[in-house]
Design brief:
Blueprint lengths: L1 H12 L9 H28 L10 H8 L4 H14 L3 H8 L5 H9 L6 H17 L2 H15 L1 H13 L2 E6 L5 E6 L2 H30 L12 H18 L10 E6 L2 H4 L24 E6 L17 H11 L14 E5 L14 E5 H10 L9
Parallel strand pairs: 3-4
Antiparallel strand pairs: 1-2, 5-6
Helix pairs in contact: 2-4, 3-4, 7-8, 8-9, 10-11
């Protein structure tokens, strides 16, 4: 059977890639890849249980697989561990073998399986697999994160504490005077740092772009800028340290913003996450509440957060309500975060569409411009 599979794969490998480049073929190939990965993982788990690897002097099946298959040891260990989990996840196994989900989906579900959640997972495994088959991967991960919080609240809080305890920063100087570092931050602290680093790097990019445009007399390319993206991030980090050093004593620190969704869980389930989609246990917010700004947005038909429906642009509370609700670009092939998106009319304003949260949605600049180009021109005015 393996010989037949090998022959089929060799036949496929000899085909011009252009013949397999349509969307339907790409989807089919990925499904086949998932099926082969499931078969391989299940067979590796059986090999692990059979202990044939002991005859060669290997200490573990993962060590044997890593050596004989020339895999990174971490990858071999993950495959063996996932195969062991698969014995207790029959719905995942069936869906994976059918190519309906991938190993990444199964690994996420296996990652929340422990003694405290075993009974709940046996009950809800089919629900989580259905989510894997219906949602984008990032949304699926959030759904599993919320499921874990409900299945084992104490365990979720303990896991959050362990994540926070792993935070560390290492910075050392080489003999040549250069500094090298490593950084591990918890989700909230990391987001605070990453957002400010990105904001400052974006300002430096705009400066570089303006300088290059003035120097060249035309719109530049990224390769013509004076700094690379990595260099701008390094300069932004130095600027952050300089700003901290020169801040006035007792000055007001920038406060993180947490968005609390009121009356939203009934329709959409529990929500406790950062703007970038990272699911948090509520205990993670406790250390920040003394310095955070708390924002409330009410999504009810009787009390929408609105401004004038005839305003041309979304602004103020209405725009913020759309940002909180959508959280990223609403195009199915995009996940640009809200702070980099524009608020767009679903029914165009030129065709009478109101400027309300019900008629608004987030769209990144690219997809908003794409929609504008595809939009047919308005009919001529007979008057």
């Amino acid at each position: 059977m393996l010989s037949a599979v090998r022959e089929a794969v060799e036949e496929l490998s000899g085909i011009d890639p252009a013949r397999l480049s349509d969307g339907e073929s790409v989807i089919a190939l990925h499904r086949l890849l998932a099926q082969l990965e499931a078969i391989t993982t299940r067979a590796t788990a059986a090999f692990d249980a059979g202990r044939e690897w002991q005859a060669d002097g290997a200490q573990t099946a993962a060590q044997w697989v890593a050596t004989e298959c020339r895999l990174p040891r971490g990858a071999a260990r993950r495959r063996v561990a996932l195969g062991r989990h698969l014995r207790q996840l029959p719905v995942c196994e069936e869906a994976w073998l059918a190519g309906d989900v991938t190993g990444a989906h199964v690994a996420v579900i296996a990652g929340v399986r422990r003694r405290e959640t075993a009974d709940a997972l046996a009950r809800d495994e089919d629900v989580l697999v259905d989510s894997a088959m219906e949602l984008r991967f990032e949304a699926f991960c959030r759904a599993v994160g919320y499921w874990e919080q409900l299945a084992d609240p104490d365990g979720a809080d303990d896991a959050e504490d362990r994540r926070s305890a792993r935070r560390q920063v290492q910075l050392s100087q080489s003999f040549g005077g250069m500094f090298f570092g490593r950084m591990v931050l918890d989700p909230v602290g990391g987001t605070v740092v990453a957002d400010e680093l990105e904001r400052r790097a974006r300002l430096l990019f705009e400066e570089d772009w303006a300088e290059a445009r003035a120097r060249l007399g035309r719109e530049p390319t990224a390769a013509e800028l004076t700094r690379t993206a990595a260099q701008r991030r390094a300069d932004a980090l130095v600027a952050m340290a300089a700003a901290s050093r020169t801040a006035p004593p007792g000055g007001r620190r920038p406060a993180p913003l947490f968005t609390v969704l009121v009356g939203y869980e009934t329709l959409h389930g529990r929500i406790c996450e950062l703007a970038n989609g990272t699911v948090l246990s509520p205990v993670a917010l406790l250390p920040w509440l003394a310095q955070a700004d708390i924002e409330r947005a009410v999504f009810t038909p009787e009390g929408r957060v609105e401004v004038s429906e005839r305003a041309r642009l979304f602004s103020g509370a209405t725009r913020r309500a759309i940002e909180v609700r959508d959280r990223c670009c609403q195009h199915p092939y995009c996940d640009e975060p809200a702070d980099r998106c524009q608020a767009d009319h679903i029914q165009p304003w030129t065709e009478g569409g109101p400027t309300t949260q019900d008629n608004g949605r987030l769209a990144c600049g690219f997809h908003n411009r794409l929609r504008q180009r595809r939009r047919p021109p308005p009919p001529p005015d007979d008057g």
